[in-house]
Design goal:
This protein is α/β, with parallel strands linked by helices. It folds into two domains: 168 residues, Aconitase, domain 4 (Alpha-Beta Barrel); 37 residues, no CATH class. The chain contains nine helices and seven strands. The radius of gyration is 23 Å and the shape is globular.
């Protein structure tokens, strides 16, 4: 559906460095937080074993627990971010926590699809560029990053660079659409295709319904 936030073309805010390579979805959202039947409360489980110790106490040295990074909107991660299982809860948890974008040199393939379809922006940049941004945001005094989706640019203290998105994903972000909204925007084209398809192949229309109706009398007689 359509995003109600006033600005869907620009993400700006505190960026936190999380340079761990191969950070998988099991670490992003541990299994014990997957028991619910809805999405509620997943922010509590985000990166739980990194944020808390074995006694469930906050690890004060973990970046997201530090006062300077309170309100983080962007993560700058290591390579292959989001690898592992296909759990979509990892994306939902990041969003519930307030993360609107992740910058990394590469992402797990399924995580990438889940994130972009839910409008969690993933920005892929060369590793050298990512490391420069990590160096910038590792200092709380220079931790702000701007991602301009309209102009496809990323800006930190020392870096200004461009990135790319598929046209479909770029349009979703610019127009504030999730996957359902993007599909509904094509409703007229879908209906036109459907009408053309049935006009060219009328024998395929409602095959299951027609067959079931034809067989119904025979079934009734067999039961008698």
């Amino acid at each position: 559906m359509r995003d109600t936030r006033p600005d869907t073309t620009r993400i700006e805010g505190i960026a936190a460095p999380l340079p761990t390579p191969n950070l998988d979805t099991d670490q992003i959202m541990p299994k014990q937080f997957l028991r619910g039947i809805d999405k509620a409360g997943l922010d509590r489980g985000l990166l739980y074993d990194l944020r808390f110790d074995g006694e469930h106490r906050l690890r004060e040295d973990f970046v997201l627990n530090r006062p300077d990074y309170r309100g983080t909107a962007i993560l700058v991660g290591g390579s292959n971010f989001g690898c592992g299982s296909s759990r979509e809860h990892a994306v939902w948890g990041l969003q519930q926590y307030g993360i609107r974008a992740v910058i990394a040199s590469s992402f797990g393939e399924i995580f990438y699809s889940n994130a972009m379809n839910n409008r969690l922006l993933l920005v892929m940049l060369p590793e050298e560029t990512v490391q420069s941004i990590i160096a910038d945001v590792s200092d709380p005094a220079t931790s702000r990053v701007t991602i301009d989706v309209a102009n496809m640019t990323v800006t930190s203290r020392t870096v200004t660079t461009t990135f790319s998105l598929s046209e479909r994903h770029r349009r979703m972000f610019l127009e504030g659409l999730d996957m359902i909204g993007a599909t509904l925007a094509l409703e007229e084209r879908i209906q036109a295709f459907q009408q053309g398809h049935w006009a060219a192949r009328p024998w395929l229309k409602d095959v299951a319904h027609t067959t079931r109706a034809r067989l119904a009398p025979a079934r009734t007689q067999t039961r008698r």
